[in-house]
Design a protein that fits this description.
The protein is α/β, with parallel strands linked by helices. The chain contains 9 helices and 6 strands. It is globular and about 45 Å long.
Length: about 290
């Protein structure tokens, strides 16, 4: 069985990362260039491509109050904690080896939006992720990348798909899946219908244990957990919930719980690249 999700080493080890990390605490991506870039990007993108004040408040309120998420914590805690444990945990998508994922048989990638691909409430891609996203887009066939969000595309908060269209215009090659039920509730029927395959052939990338990871594991995805990109527009309540989630997950790891096995990827370390910030690391190219 897999141990805890694979570590992202700061320096290369031959031939692949061999250790598995202790559960991480919830903290932002701390690249100083990223912080500077995103502060201005958040401000400009929020003004230039605003989704409307009313939509912003609906989305913000929706992310603060997620009854399905609360129920998921109780259900997972009472029955199967491993549903909240990701197959892979790393800083952000720059550590993912898209070519290895494709080689393993995965047919597409489903991303959460806020704090996974973009800053909260911003439609444009987080600038430091541009190269990694381009590599992902080049590796998978056209139409094989999508966003499944608890805001944009969710009919409760985006009934006309206006937010979804703004994001699709801002991030080339991404499709925002329209759906009815907030994660972690619901099935993967809308996603499977869009991709034309089982969820077990797809990767789900998100930044929350009890929404993205629980939803993904319940429905058979390969689950990848990333750290939040930026806390600037995230509410105090959400930040506190992140800390609670990290505490619970850490406790479960210490109790010996393991992630669910995925049939396409027995060894999740295969898809973890070396440190993308270190040009001397000899990281594999993704072609």
């Amino acid at each position: 069985m897999l141990g805890p999700p694979p570590v992202v080493p700061l320096r290369p080890r031959a031939p692949r990362p061999t250790a598995l990390p202790t559960p991480r605490t919830a903290k932002p991506n701390t690249d100083p260039t990223t912080t500077t870039t995103t502060t201005s990007s958040t401000a400009s993108a929020g003004k230039a491509a605003t989704m409307g004040a009313a939509a912003w408040w609906r989305r913000a309120l929706g992310q603060r109050l997620n009854p399905a998420g609360v129920a998921a914590v109780a259900a997972v805690a009472a029955s199967e904690p491993r549903l909240a444990l990701p197959h892979v945990s790393l800083q952000d998508i720059r550590w993912l080896d898209w070519a290895e994922l494709r080689h393993a048989g995965f047919r597409g990638v489903v991303f959460d939006k806020d704090n996974t691909l973009t800053a909260p409430y911003v439609p444009a891609l987080w600038p430091p992720l541009a190269d990694a996203f381009d590599q992902c887009r080049a590796t998978f066939p056209p139409g094989a990348l999508a966003i499944y969000s608890n805001s944009a595309g969710l009919k409760e908060y985006d009934p006309d798909g206006v937010d979804a269209k703004v994001i699709e215009a801002a991030i080339e090659g991404i499709h925002v899946i329209r759906h009815d039920i907030k994660k972690p509730g619901g099935t993967a029927k809308e996603i499977e219908s869009y991709f034309g395959c089982s969820a077990s052939n797809l990767v789900l990338v998100g930044d929350r244990y009890f929404t993205d990871v629980v939803y993904g594991n319940r429905n058979g995805f390969l689950t990848v957990l990333t750290e939040p990109l930026n806390f600037a527009n995230e509410s105090y309540i959400v930040r506190m919930v992140r800390k609670l989630e990290a505490y619970i997950i850490s406790y479960w790891y210490k109790k010996g719980h393991k992630p669910i096995k995925h049939p396409l990827l027995p060894d999740a370390r295969r898809i973890v690249k070396f440190d993308p910030y270190d040009d001397s690391s000899g990281s594999k190219s993704i072609a």
